[in-house]
Amino acid sequence: MKKVDSVFSKSANRRSFLKGGTLAAAGAATLVAGALPGKLAAFDGDDRGPGVTRGDIAILTFLSALEQVEADLWIQYAELGGATNQGLSPIDLELNGKKIVTGLAPNYITALEVLDGDMPQYIADNTDDEISHHRFLNNYLASKGARTIDLSQFAIIPPSAVSGVPQNGRLTNLKQLTVDTSWWTRYRSSNKNPDFGDTFEQAVPDLAKGQHPAIPLNDNDLVLNPDGSIPNHLLAIAFTAGFHFAFIEQGGTSLYPTLAQHVTNLEVLRVLLSIGPSEAMHFQTWHDKAGNATQITDGNLSFPNLNAGVDPNNGATGPAVADEFQTNLIMPEPTIFLNRALGPVSIVRPTSTQEGGAVASVQSFADDGLFLDPATGKNTGIVKALMQLAEEADEARRQL
């Protein structure tokens, strides 16, 4: 996540939940459905502390919206690269009661398995988790008398044209990604923290430039070499996906503890503290698998040998470089936190609203190219809608 001034003027677009008597801002209200029956009293407290506040609702609404975005992109990965057989345990991946067909691109799966043989299973599981997060958060909002969030009106982006993929519009574009891989060096640094405004080098510099597909665009991308080996182009697509998986999940790893600091109600806090660690589990898994990408070049995209002791950004060498890039150093290196005088500690980073809050999350997804409409080359309207929700979430303040 990185600091943003704002792609929209905060003063012009902020519509606070804290003003007026309604739960939803006028702009955001068009995105939501009515509350479900059987709801609980919206803002009643109990012996566990203060009731659910409008700030709490703003945070939950934003998180549900972002989880819908994540579910959308993970469904696309699962359709093409998800497991089709997991032994005696049945695959029960579904959305709104409808089964999600998985593993439609076997050669893409073969390329993903260069990173790890369990990649298809992990993809299916991660997809299931994100669907559950969005569903639960919406159900929880409804139980509190709040409106639920639905971004389906922005599902206009065409998916992969690989045979068998349902050709319904999607919220996210996985075909033109600009992937920030600075999370790699950020979690290996022993003296820098984004909460202090520090910046970090890219693990795969080429991924942060241009636009790269993380899924096969069509059946032509799935053709193997005459000898049956995997062409570099298909490997590059799979490796891009591998680094993108970690990019997405490190965002949630930071976002939940960041927003938890603004929650008032203890049960809402419990919700955030319970979902957030699952995002960290995802990130740790994908962090490990991305490091198995082999050194290849496909056009203007090269994946470096990160174990060579050479900085892929500037060619520097030495022990410090190895610390920054070596692939098996996936545990968060202790670094500075709160105050440099306190000494280093192993932490999630960032966790400040300025560097890792809701607005920064939306900006990072937009910078990633997730919302590019290929028909126009511009972001869909989902960015403005998410920004409005994000500003409301970041505005929330803990009430004692």
Can you offer a commentary on this structure?
The protein is mainly alpha-helical and 400 residues long. It has one domain (10-156, 171-395). 40% of the residues lie in helices and 4% in strands. The protein is built from 12 helices and 8 strands. A two-stranded antiparallel sheet has the order 1-4. A hairpin with a 2-residue loop joins strand 2 and strand 3 (98-99). Helix 3 (54-81) runs antiparallel to helix 5 and helix 4 (106-112) crosses helix 7.
The stretches of 5 or more residues where confidence is low (pLDDT under 50) are: 1-30, 32-47
Radius of gyration: 21 Å
Continuous helix count: 12
| Strand segment count | 8
End-to-end distance, in Å?
Answer: 29 Å
Shape: globular
Q: Classify the secondary structure makeup into a structural class.
A: mainly alpha
The strand line-up of the biggest sheet is 1-4
What's the number of domains? Answer: 1
